[in-house]
Amino acid sequence: MPGTINNEYGKVTISEDIIATVAGYAATENYGVVGMSAKTATDAILKLVGSEANKKRGVKVSFIGDGDEVDIDLYVTMVYGVSLPVVAKNMIDNVRYRVQETTGIKVANVNIHVESISA
After folding, report:
1. Nearest to 40 by CA among 25, 16, 59
2. Is the pTM of this model over 0.85?
3. Rounded CA gap, 94 and 106, in Å?
4. How far apart are the first and last CA of the chain?
5. Are strands 33-36 and 69-79 parallel, antiparallel or unpaired?
6. N or C: which end of the chain has fewer CB within 10 A?
7. Phi/psi of residue 118, each to 5°?
8. Any idea what the Cα angle at residue 24 is, between residues 57 and 105, rounded to 5°?
9. Ramachandran region of residue 18, left (φ > 0), alpha (ψ -120 to 50) or beta?
10. In the chain, which residue ranges form alpha helices assigned H by DSSP?
C-alpha cells in the first residue's frame, strides 16, 4: 500500500520504495554505520551479485492506517568500538527528519536492528 498525502491541490501517492531509499541514504550518513544488512533472501542475493548501490536493502517500510504514517525498520552493520545507543539515536533522528521532510509522511517509529559489527 503506498503512502498518501492529501492537500488542497489533490492527492500525492508515494511508494514504499521511495521511502525505503530515503531512509537507507539517511541511515548510512551517520558516523558509526558501515552499511545496511540483508533482511531477506533477495537482499542477500543482490549483495552477492554486487548490487551495493541498492539503498533499499536493509530497510523495511510498513504503512499505518490510511497510509499517512509509516514505521521503518533498519537492519544495519555498525563499526566496532562506537556507542551503539548513541549511534542508534542519531540514526533514528536523522531518518525520521529526512523521511518527513522529503516525503511529508509522518514517521511513527524507527526501529534499529544491529545485525553485525565490523572492525
Report:
1. 59
2. no
3. 14
4. 38
5. antiparallel
6. C
7. -120, 145
8. 120
9. alpha
10. 16-28, 41-48, 84-103
Give how far Cα 84 sits from Cα of 51, 71, 88, 111, Å: 27, 21, 6, 13
Burial of 98-115, coded b for 16+ CB within 10 Å and e otherwise, reads bbeebbebebeebebeee
The pLDDT, as a whole number, for residue 66 is 80
Residue position matching grid coordinates 541498492: 54
| Residue 2: per-residue pLDDT | 73
* pLDDT tens, residue by residue, 33-76: 988 887 655 555 555 555 544 567 889 999 988 878 999 999 99
Nearest CA among 105, 94, 109 for reference residue 23: 94
* CA 8/CA 55 separation, integer angstroms: 32
Q: CA dist 45 to 3, 41, 102, 109, Å?
A: 28, 6, 29, 28
110 grid coordinates: 524507527
